[in-house]
Write a sequence for this structure.
């Protein structure tokens, strides 16, 4: 009886809303303007600074460049990958044979290519056994990580802090911690052909980075599929993103030191049934994502959404929102909270929004909309646009303009030509070593902790080599001065350069 | 007449000060290079690296954030005298160095700073190492420059209790200071000392406190033997996504300079400090404080904004104790998303402490002036403070 009453009320409400919608029939009677795909004008991306010339027509994703050296090391089952990394010179390729490796591998040097060898489907498996923190973490430039299987780590599968020109390719990352793949604070990187699942935050999370390409990955059963956060010039394309709580996210997390996200192209992805229960840790940003959200844009600017197949996401297909509507994020006076210049081009959308969250339902009522929402926009936005809007059930989109372009075909990727590792001239190192280290104890004329530079010059003027040797292994020479600590942490070339520098300073 | 009296009083103290000539150093402090126009430019190995968006955040070989430099050697040296001079306080008993002592990591060894009359000021004195790189000052981030910061303690009734007028009178009365200011600001027309000149000199000196020669730095620049196995293990826990320390204490400065609400407890009997909520008028930042640098952290116990923890291991145990475990029941805090429940082992906590010890570098500690233009004793203003109980 009671249930019948409620049904009756809903029926009346729907009839009421339907009537009102019909009342606005002049909108409906006009045949919708159609915008073509490839035939129309093209999107050209957001200009970057001049020293970062865009390689938008290029299609090479081998940003780490060719190996920096011919050196190859091989790690066999039962050996340690880290031992090899420690012994490796920069530029070394390390091939890891199939087997099980229970370790954390860290790479603080340039040009290390960590390549798993796959034999008849058998991979090098990094197994954290539920006790190790992260599988692979690196800060070097031009690092490549390929072909591993990574499982049962508590932290991240593959993470970086800084490091430019990296490639993370063809890895299986299963049931591992917080993030599957987490490049952070780096430039010019590729994440492709990885399979990532069972991650309690984002399967692939690009944080505070520039010039990024995320493509051909298969990500599922995680809280978030692919996140582009506080990053610029990123393309997310041709991924399969299904059964996560949220599929593909482009957003600004407030309170981070790099304050913007813009110029993100999300195109040609399969964004399917991202209806997994949200199992994020309390307090994490993604804990606030409503389960069933296909694509989420929060506070990010210049996000292009094109050519995706977005279906069966029960909350909604595309949700565009701001910080003000996200209850679980902090405030940041230095970051713009709104999603501006969002551009929705042609997408294939089907059966989204079957169970939208109550806030979206209520919002639809305010616009007298019925049906299941494909696209929802809440919060302020300026200069956003859409084409072929008549195809979708939308709410909050009526003030979007028609886009002035219909595709992004001329934007190949946002990757940069491989920047060769910076060569630092020994004499430059020598100068900085003198000013930053030697000058702490030696002045030109006066007595400080060590003897005056003039005195040292008189002793070694014709023999910088001897001074360089002394710097590495000092011996006590003067009773009235403390013994000098060895400076052997400076490499040989720098020691000679600093000796040369010290012998020619004039004041 | 006035000047004669001063001269006599200096003589009476057995001191004299070269009123004329070159009393201030003409050379830049270590880690600075004198440019063609006579200014001191910072030089470090980190200048060889870059960073995303120029933010100065990343990993081992990442550039530092933007910094203050370009002061003259004379301004820096004048700042050194002012910094150690109790003349800057209303009653001549406190100097900047009272709470920022070189031998105590430019902090004071106390849980909370003691102000005028040794009154508890409620918050810990922050270290001044590497302040050249900071964009916000004070625990609650309420000042945006070193010059703005200087006015806080100078004119706070609880701290140095001076007034702008009284400070200028005291400085202008000292012929020695007038001479030094002329030397530091040779281009000016007026002969009187100006407040802006005081702030500039203090900023110049503080911006010269550079600590970038730690063993960690040696490791970062490529000498991996600089750290022991245990310390490297600690580094890897530090930057792991289980502990997540490096997410906020990000290299190379070991701070991301943001405000974070972490829910650290106040000492027994102290009310909760709302921190940056007041600065930004933002309830979501209640209990938020600026993320401090960890450089020289081993030298600046006790720890946290109000000195609740006496040693680094206790701090690690706090972070390991579970998200929000120390937040009072009646308080609703918007805790930072990286505050989690990492469940690190006791060994891992010990390795973190090992690693933090590698961030110590005091090789470029400046000298304390043996005597001051005011004739006051720089050491008296420091030594009246006790070590931690």
């Amino acid at each position: 009886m009671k249930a019948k009453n409620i049904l009756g009320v809903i029926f009346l409400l729907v009839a009421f809303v339907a009537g009102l919608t019909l009342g606005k029939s002049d909108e409906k009677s006009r045949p919708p303007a159609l915008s073509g795909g490839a035939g129309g004008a093209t999107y050209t991306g957001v200009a970057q600074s001049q020293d970062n010339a865009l390689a938008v027509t290029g299609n090479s994703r081998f940003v780490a460049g060719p190996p920096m050296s011919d050196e190859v090391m091989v790690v066999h089952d039962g050996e340690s990958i880290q031992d090899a990394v420690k012994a490796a010179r920069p530029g070394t390729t390390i091939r890891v044979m199939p087997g099980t490796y229970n370790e954390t591998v860290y790479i603080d040097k340039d040009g290390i290519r960590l390549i798993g060898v796959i034999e008849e489907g058998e991979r090098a498996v990094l197994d954290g056994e539920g006790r190790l923190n992260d599988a692979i973490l690196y800060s070097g430039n031009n690092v490549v990580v390929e072909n591993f299987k990574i499982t049962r780590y508590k932290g991240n599968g593959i993470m970086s802090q800084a490091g430019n020109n990296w490639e993370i390719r063809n890895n299986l990352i299963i049931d591992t911690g917080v993030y599957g793949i987490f490049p952070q604070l780096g430039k010019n990187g590729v994440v492709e052909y990885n399979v990532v699942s069972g991650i309690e935050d984002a399967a692939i999370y690009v944080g505070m980075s520039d010039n990024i390409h995320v493509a051909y990955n298969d990500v599922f059963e995680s809280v978030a599929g692919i996140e582009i956060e506080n990053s610029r010039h990123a393309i997310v394309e041709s991924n399969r993103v299904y059964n996560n709580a949220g599929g593909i996210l482009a957003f600004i997390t407030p309170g981070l030191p790099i304050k913007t996200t813009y110029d993100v192209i999300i195109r040609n992805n399969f964004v399917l049934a991202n209806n997994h229960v949200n199992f994020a840790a309390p307090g994490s940003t993604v804990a606030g994502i409503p389960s069933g959200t296909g694509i989420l844009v929060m506070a990010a600017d210049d996000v292009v959404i094109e050519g995706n197949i977005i279906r069966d996401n029960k909350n909604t297909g595309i949700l565009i929102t701001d910080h003000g509507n996200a209850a679980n994020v902090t405030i940041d006076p230095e970051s713009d909270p709104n999603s501006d210049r969002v551009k929705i081009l042609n997408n294939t959308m089907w059966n989204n929004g079957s169970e939208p969250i109550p806030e979206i339902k209520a919002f639809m009522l305010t616009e007298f909309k019925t049906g299941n929402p494909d696209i929802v926009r809440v919060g302020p936005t300026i200069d956003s646009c859409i084409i072929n809007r008549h195809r979708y059930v939308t709410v909050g989109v009526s003030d979007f303009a028609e886009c002035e372009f219909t595709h992004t075909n001329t934007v190949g990727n946002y990757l940069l030509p491989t920047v060769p590792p910076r060569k630092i001239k020994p004499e430059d190192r020598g100068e900085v070593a003198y000013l930053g280290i030697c000058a702490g104890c030696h002045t030109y004329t006066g007595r400080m902790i060590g003897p005056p530079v003039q005195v040292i010059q008189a002793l070694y003027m014709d023999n910088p080599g001897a001074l360089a040797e002394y710097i590495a292994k000092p011996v006590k020479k003067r009773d009235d001065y403390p013994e000098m600590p060895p400076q052997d942490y400076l490499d040989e070339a720098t020691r000679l350069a600093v000796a040369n520098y010290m012998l020619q300073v004039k004041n | 007449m006035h000047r004669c009296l001063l001269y006599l009083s200096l003589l009476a103290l057995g001191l004299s000060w070269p009123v004329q000539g070159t009393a201030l150093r003409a050379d830049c402090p270590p880690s600075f290079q004198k440019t063609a126009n006579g200014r001191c430019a910072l030089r470090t190995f980190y200048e060889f690296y870059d960073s995303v968006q120029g933010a100065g955040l990343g990993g081992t070989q990442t550039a530092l954030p933007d910094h203050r430099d370009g002061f003259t050697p004379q301004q820096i040296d004048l700042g050194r005298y002012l910094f150690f001079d109790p003349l800057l306080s209303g009653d001549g008993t406190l100097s900047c160095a009272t709470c920022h002592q070189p031998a105590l990591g430019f902090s004071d060894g106390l849980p909370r700073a003691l102000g005028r009359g040794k009154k508890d000021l409620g918050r810990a004195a922050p270290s001044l190492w590497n302040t050249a790189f900071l964009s916000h000052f004070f625990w609650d981030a309420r000042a945006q420059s070193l010059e703005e910061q200087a006015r806080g303690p100078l004119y706070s009734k609880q701290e140095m209790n001076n007034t702008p007028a009284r400070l200028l009178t005291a400085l202008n009365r000292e012929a020695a200071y007038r001479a030094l200011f002329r030397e530091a600001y040779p281009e000016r027309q007026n002969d009187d000392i100006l407040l802006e000149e005081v702030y500039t000199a203090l900023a110049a000196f503080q911006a010269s406190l550079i600590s970038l020669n730690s063993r960690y730095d040696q490791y970062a620049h490529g000498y991996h033997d600089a750290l022991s196995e245990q310390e490297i293990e600690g580094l890897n826990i530090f930057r792991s996504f289980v502990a997540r320390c490096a997410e906020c204490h990000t290299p190379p400065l070991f701070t991301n300079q943001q405000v974070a609400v972490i829910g650290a407890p106040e000492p027994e009997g102290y009310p909760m400090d709302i921190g940056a909520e007041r600065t930004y008028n933002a309830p979501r930042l209640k209990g938020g404080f600026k993320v401090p640098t960890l450089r020289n952290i081993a030298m600046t116990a006790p720890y946290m904004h109000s000195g609740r923890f006496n040693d680094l291991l206790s701090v690690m145990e706090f972070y390991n104790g579970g998200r929000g475990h120390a937040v009072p029941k009646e308080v609703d805090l918007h805790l930072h998303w990286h505050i989690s429940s990492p469940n690190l082992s006791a060994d891992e906590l010990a390795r973190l402490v090992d690693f933090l010890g590698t961030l110590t570098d005091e090789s470029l500690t400046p000298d304390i002036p043996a005597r001051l233009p005011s004739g006051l004793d720089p050491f008296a203003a420091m030594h009246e403070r006790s070590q931690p109980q």
About this structure: The radius of gyration of chain A is 29 Å.
